[in-house]
Structures are given as structure tokens and as C-alpha cells.
């Protein structure tokens, strides 16, 4: 949908209006840029001969976008300047709280050190020049090959006042999967953090009642981690017995 001026439905909250749509900004054009975290062989990462897709010989690198350099373009610089200035006013060096700032696919993402997440989120919510009043939830991501930061939590923040959308990203290692809860800043994150804990095992410290929300309370493991077994249970179907996925024969 577009308004009378031809702007997208999201207005300033969509892609950065001053960002050129060059070839480097299009999906799939990252090339050799960014940070390589692993090399994937085959289409779906199967390494036991069970890849029946026909793409078993495919080799590609999996990369995360690297930090952006100034100027970011459009209102991205304004948000970054205001956030850094507000943190300095609180006596916190921005470089100690913001690990890196990424501009990729028309989105602005601040990678935040987990111990400073609550302060940064509260600043983004309360500062009049920022006013990101709404967090639409937190999503978990698991990168088993990203050593020391295998678990990522990604937050989408919306400024209703300024009609802007940014992301926060925080990482934690598998060996210490703790990230501060944002439920005290954004109460609607209560259930989103429970779901992320349930499926990825991220422990949100300070959450009022961090329990499973989808899986049974006594479930072992976290099903959306990349290293989680397919599992499953045998199913009877018209007299035939269908084994669980991890017990079926492989086509190699």
C-alpha cells in the first residue's frame, strides 16, 4: 500500500528513504563482505549422507554482516547520534554498550553488550528524540559455529512517535546462555521471552516467571536449536508403522 505521495505503507519506518538501492544492498549480494561463521556443504546442512535434494555438492559460506561506517544515511545517523549522546549523559561510554552498528538490507541494527541491554532499551524508550515505545517481541537464533556467541536474541523496536523501526541484537555463549529480561521495560516481552527460552534455551534473567510456553514442562532440550535431534515418535497409519524421523532410512 502507498499513501498519496507514493510512499510505502510504513513511511519512514520502512527502508531508509535516503539509502541507494545499489547492487550491494540487494538480497544475496553480500559477497565476501561481513564475517564468515561457517562453510555450509549441501543445501540443508546434512552431513550424514541423508541430503536427497540433489544439492549435496553445493558449498557456500555463511556470513554475518559486518559493522557499517558513517554516514549510515537518512535518519539512521540521527538515531545513532541521539542514542550515543544519551548514553554519554548517563556516564556510559557508547563503545562499551554498543558492540557494533550494522546497516544491512535497509535495516539499522545495534549489537548490544548483554550487561547493558536494559539501560540501552530504557534509553531508546524514554529519550524524547528516540521514543521507541514498542517492542514487538524477541526472536532467538542459534549459530552453533559462532563460537562464544552461539545464541542470539533479536528485538524489533518501533517508534510510534517518529514512525521508525530498528533492531537490537544481543549474543550469549552456549555455556552461559543468560541475557537480561526486558519485561520491565517492555511488559509485552513477557510471553515472547518465554517462547524464546522454550525453543532456544536462552535464560532471561529477571523475568517474572520464566517457564515453557509451548513444550511440556518436563521436555528435554530446546527444539529450535540447530543441533537438536529431529526426534519424533512412531505413528500408526492404516496398519502401517511410520518410524520417527531420526530412525528412518537415509538415501545416500
Automatic annotation (TrEMBL):
Membrane topology listed for this record: Peripheral membrane protein
Residue span, NADH:ubiquinone oxidoreductase 30kDa subunit domain: 111-232
InterPro entries: NADH_DH_suC, NADH_quin_OxRdtase_su_C/D-like, NADH_UbQ_OxRdtase_30kDa_su
Organism name: Streptomyces griseomycini
Compartmental location: Cell membrane
Location (main, coarse): membrane
Described function: NDH-1 shuttles electrons from NADH, via FMN and iron-sulfur (Fe-S) centers, to quinones in the respiratory chain. The immediate electron acceptor for the enzyme in this species is believed to be a menaquinone. Couples the redox reaction to proton translocation (for every two electrons transferred, four hydrogen ions are translocated across the cytoplasmic membrane), and thus conserves the redox energy in a proton gradient.
Family listed: Belongs to the complex I 30 kDa subunit family.
Residue span of region Disordered: 1-36
Catalyzed chemical reaction(s): a quinone + NADH + 5 H(+)(in) = a quinol + NAD(+) + 4 H(+)(out)
Molecular function terms, GO-annotated: NADH dehydrogenase (quinone) (non-electrogenic) activity; NADH dehydrogenase (ubiquinone) activity; quinone binding
GO cellular component: plasma membrane
Pfam family, one: Complex1_30kDa
Key words of the record: Cell membrane, Membrane, NAD, Quinone, Translocase, Transport
Listed name of the protein: NADH-quinone oxidoreductase subunit C
Subunit relationships: NDH-1 is composed of 14 different subunits. Subunits NuoB, C, D, E, F, and G constitute the peripheral sector of the complex.
EC number(s) on file: 7.1.1.-
